[in-house]
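May I ask for an example protein's residues together with how it folds?

___
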Amino acid sequence: MKKNLQLLPLHVIAITCTLLFISACSKDNNKGKMQTYTIYTPVYKAKSEVLASINGVSTTNIEHAGKLYIKDNFIYLNELNKGIHIIDNSNPSQPTQIAFLSIPGNLDIAIKGNILYADMFTDLLALDITDPHHVTIKNTLNNFFTSRGYVNGAPSFMDDKIAVDWTEKDTAVFVQNNYPTAECNGCFFDLASSTIKSSSGVAGSMAGMVIMNDYLYSISEMHSLSIVDITNPSSPILDSSFFAGFDLQTVYPFEDKLFLGSAIGMFMYDVSDPQHPVSIGQFEHGRACDPVISDGNYAYVTLHAGDGCGGDQNELDVINIQDLVNSKLVKTYALTKPTGLCKDGNYLFVCDGTGVKIYNAINPLNLMLVHQIKSNEPYDIIAANKKALIVDADGLYQYDYSNMNNVRLLSFIAAKK
């Protein structure tokens, strides 16, 4: 089944200074006119200085929360392109921010034992978090994430320096025949009226990097999955990389299988031999933003429009994967604007529009809505042991759902922008 959707990167809706995008900025291709843009210019800092100051200020505000990871009694929350908040969740009613890892370009998190793996633009860092207040860098795989050499139209690394911030300046540019008269010089433009969005633990459904036993699997390039040997967690070794599907976005592990969400569908791999994944099937759904989870019998995929994803379809697809080679769509549920999702037992949680919908999923062909948690703009969720952690545009929520008739808010850490 195919749907006509158009994808742009989830976190990058800015318009880069290329002919293709600039031409889209002008409504009149024949006449010159003034157009207001915001120019973003990278601020660089010596890489050695950045690495030396990786232990940031523990009270750093959550501003733009991204991906979520939990291990033991700790929550690891990505701050988009800035780093990782470490939160002590020993008391879910009073979670406490205890540390902040300052990592420019960070989007993903994975943990094995006391070693945390994090991306820093193109590099993969292995960090010892035995003492979260004094994290140390154990190893680095340079140029691991090859697709992140350029971010927002500019190099993420410049010689021995790394982009740590961006300056913004609104400017009026005369556009004629689709060409702005101002020079770009490594900056990128965005319409001023636009809005910029943006052993192992448990990762959310938006994860692009996961751990299975002694191996880390990561989307290292738009179409490639890389396998990293972490038998010695402190010394990750790149084992291999291979073409795993077009426009990969997310990775979800289940038993000895990997489910890869992509812009065009879902790719499934058997990793019972961890160094040699075997393709066992795929499901095509057209171009869309696509996180995916599985319970072994069914895969659940959310598709949403807007935010650079294109198209106009917002839905939850249920795919029968009992025969992985011949997986098939068995049910589609219309939703508002779904993003992250997870499953705990017979309950399916879906972030959708202005809330998190909780379904009784005993019969995937007849999902029954049993509760809805009101929220502003939920992005991802992890639910386990009757506790749900929700990443929202407003911050981080935590709920107790031990009684579906009385789902209770336990705590909230507000985003302060």
Notes: Residues 70 and 202 are 5 Å apart (CA to CA).
